[in-house]
Amino acid sequence: MIKRIKELERISRLLEPTSAERKEVRKKVISYSEDFLKNIEKIKAYNVTPDKGIALLESPITETPISTDKAIELLQKNVDFPGLNPASGGHLAYIPGGGIYYSALGDYMADIFNRYAGVFYASPGAVRMENMLIKWMAEIVGFTSPPDPLSHGRGERGQGGVRGEVAGNLTSGGSLANLMGIVTARDAKNISSANITKSVIYLTKQVHHSVSKAIRIAGLKECVIRYVPMDAQSKMNVEELQKIVLLDKKNKLNPFLVIASAGTTDVGAVDPLEDIGKLAKKNDLWYHIDAAYGGFFVLTEEGKKKLKGIELADSLVIDPHKGLFLPYGLGVILVKNAEKLRESHFYQAQYLQDAIDGADEDSPADLSPELTKHFRGLRLWLPLKLMGLKPFRACLEEKLLLAKYFHNEVQKLGFETGEEPQLSVVTYRWIPSQPRPLSPGRGEEYTNAFNKKLMEAVIADGRIFISSTMIDNKFTLRFACLAFRTHLKQVDLLLKILREKVKELERK
Ligand SMILES: *Cc1c(COP(=O)(O)O)cnc(C)c1O
Fold first, then answer.
1. What 3-state DSSP class applies to 287?
2. C-alpha dist (Å) from residue 379 to 126, 129, 230, 386
């Protein structure tokens, strides 16, 4: 047996590369990623490829290794080339991602040290870091007041203090955060099989689909779902909401949850957050705000005004992998009444009994569905500490202004646009000259098809990536500006490409 153990040890030690081997692989990985970063302005935002990375499957998982060069080559051809390049400043579709560099180094260290961020007992420092970030975000959205400078960041009210009144969790993204918020609302309002079919949720057709998904996963699909009418800017009409709630109460239903968007994904609309908040309070509704896209604009003066009322939420979703330009993998749920988040997510396990005593702070494992988790805090903490908040604020304000700029300039080119952007999404479409004879209904269809062709032409060019949506059955192009590498140059390039492509298509 000893012989076998030794034999196995010899092989399993291959899992620990030597310092020289580490250096060798690291050098190649860094050189590959540096090439990418150095050329990021030249690399396309979208690459249309016929094979879509299929050759990756020709290299199956086997007993034996391949070289680093070979691995990087496989990645480059099949993973990093085809499709969308979210790291590009030319990514102006959907809601852009980012990928700031120091987050990658944060992840690197989180993975090397592999601290157990789920439980305070295991890694008090990692848990304090995550809680401190959650408290910071609770503060910027106005859930709590800033810490007392005299408390040196300690104690009941300071950042990283003892069990806070506000709680939250660093999730993998906004979808999971929405799910946790909705589960918390469900439990806080005692929704169960006894009353589910009489319980009412209010939202608009503009909510992100992850909200509808969360409602279903949370077992709430049998609730009465009321889609509240919207105004011309796609914002929830609060007067209508009030009427519906009153009527539902009169009819002995159980209104319990209203969901607002602080920046819809589709058109960037911000619901009247303050009015909805007042209404929610008056009618004893749980108030959930999905600010996955728009939340971090509170870091700008203008955004703060536009998001007024965000502080009234009972639960709030905000996505650092959107608004703080982090690489994918970080969303946040904040819950004003920590107890409610805890009640929905705490656990007890015999084998974890050692972990209970002596915890100064809430453990993420008590506040989320996860136990073991990626130490996500470090990928947010490191860039915030190494760069400070200032460039983040500037970059967000720049995005708001670029959206206004694009809105103006694209109109000058002759495009029809929606109203002035509320945040950093602009909708626009080209009304082409119509072929004759014009039969009824033809015009709209032709315009839709034209705009679809226009989008495809921009995507085929690849330098800028855009997307579309349907507004009142109209095929509409979207400009969504949130990539930290998007500057005036990229926006001007898009305007130039649009001008050229319209000309080409009009000629056909
Ligand atoms: C992106 C987005 C989501 C979903 O977040 P993920 O991080 O993609 O899971 C939810 N709501 C809104 C408004 C979004 O923009």
1. strand
2. 12, 11, 38, 11
- For residues 258-280, one letter each, b for 16 or more C-beta atoms within 10 angstroms of the residue's C-beta and e for the rest, the string is bbbbbbbbbbbbbbbbebbbebb
* 173 CB near ligand 1 (under 6 Å): yes
What average pLDDT does the structure give for the chain?
A: 94
Q: H or E stretch including 72?
A: helix 68-75
Residue nearest to atom 5 of ligand 1 (CA): 174
210 lines ligand 1 (CB under 6 A): yes
Ligand 1 within 6 A of 331 CB?
A: yes
Q: In the predicted model, is pLDDT for residue 346 greater than 70?
A: yes
The minimum-distance atom of ligand 1 relative to the CA of 208 is 11
Phi-psi group of 397: left, alpha or beta (phi > 0 → left; psi -120 to 50 → alpha; rest → beta): alpha
Instruction: Select from 307, 319, 478 the residue to mutate for testing ligand 1; criterion: most ligand atoms less than 8 Å from CB.
Output: 319
**CA angle in degrees (0–180, nearest 5) for 166-168-170:** 155
The alpha carbons of the chain give a radius of gyration, in whole angstroms, of 25
Domains in the chain, ordered, with CATH?
Answer: 391-507 (3.90.1150.170)
Q: For 235-239, what is the mean pLDDT? A: 98
pLDDT of residue 354: 73
User: What is the pLDDT at residue 151?
Assistant: 57
Q: How far is the CA of 265 from the centre of ligand 1 (A)?
A: 7
Contacts of 286 (CB under 8 A, 6+ apart): 185, 188, 189, 256, 257, 258, 280, 314, 315
Nearest C-alpha neighbor of 169 from the set 308, 311, 315: 315
Cβ 288 under 6 angstroms from ligand 1: no
pTM for the model stands at: 0.95
Instruction: Select from 236, 290, 376 the residue to mutate for testing ligand 1; criterion: most ligand atoms less than 8 Å from CB.
Output: 290
Cis peptide before 17 (omega within 30 of 0): no
- Residue carrying the six token digits 């439990």: 187
44's tokens: 């396309």
Query: pLDDT tens-digit profile of 281-317?
Result: 999 999 999 999 999 999 999 999 999 999 999 999 9
Note the pLDDT tens digit of each residue in 253-269: 999 999 999 999 999 99
The length of the chain in residues reads 508
Q: Express the helix, strand and coil content of the chain in percent, nearest 5 each.
A: 50, 15, 40
Instruction: For ligand 1, pick from 210, 270, 273 the residue to mutate: most ligand atoms within 8 Å of CB.
Output: 210
Distance 505 CA to ligand 1 centre (A): 34
Q: If you measure from the C-alpha of residue 504 to the centroid of ligand 1, how many angstroms do you get, rounded to a whole number?
A: 35
Count of CB atoms within 10 A of residue 331's CB?
A: 26
